[in-house]
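Researcher: Go.
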Amino acid sequence: MLEIRGLHAWYGESHVLHGVTMDIPQGKVVSLLGRNGAGKSTTMRSIMGLMDRTEGEILHEGVNILRLRPNHIARRGIAICPEDRGIFPSLSVIENLMLPPVVAPGGMSLERIYGLFPNIKERANSRGTELSGGEQQMLAIARILRTGATILLLDEPTEGLAPVIVQQIARTIAEIKNLGHTILLIEQNAHFVQGLADIHFLMENGQIVDRLEDHEFAAQMDRVDRLLGV
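Model: Structure:
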């Protein structure tokens, strides 16, 4: 379980997170919704120790990891899948997949990864430049699962993808959750996370403005759409 308590973060002199408090229970999917610039990606970067200046607490299994280096956080089974996916274009799918080392217990075997992502197996020898956006996203998620990550931070996984691929991503996230993994999902697409996430946090101007259980979410959709500028 991850617990974020009173998190503040700065870019240079700019104070961008203002006392963010969230709970991310073990084995659940949690969405973090907000407009561009609301502080969503900064929250993820703070969890991974990628911000120069932060204050507050980020508790993983009761241990405050706020001051840990990113490689030590990764060894605790926490990994980020960035919005740009981070695929190496000149490397093949299998080379991209095998490049990062296994850093935490329980890294997925290739057999299990291929079961979750059959298109990855089919495109194993294709270069990164030859993959569609959806295939790149699948590869990016598969790669961090192989390293041993059990807490996945997914930053805008549906950005720029066709609706049929978005549905495929949703099914994959549900399957990963069923394996017992924990997922923090940054999104601007409220309709994508409805029914997929167990808990929804709404963010505005670097602050959490509401926490909704999924059964409450549909009734608040008009408000959520206004917050997201839809």
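Model: The two ends are 32 Å apart (CA to CA).
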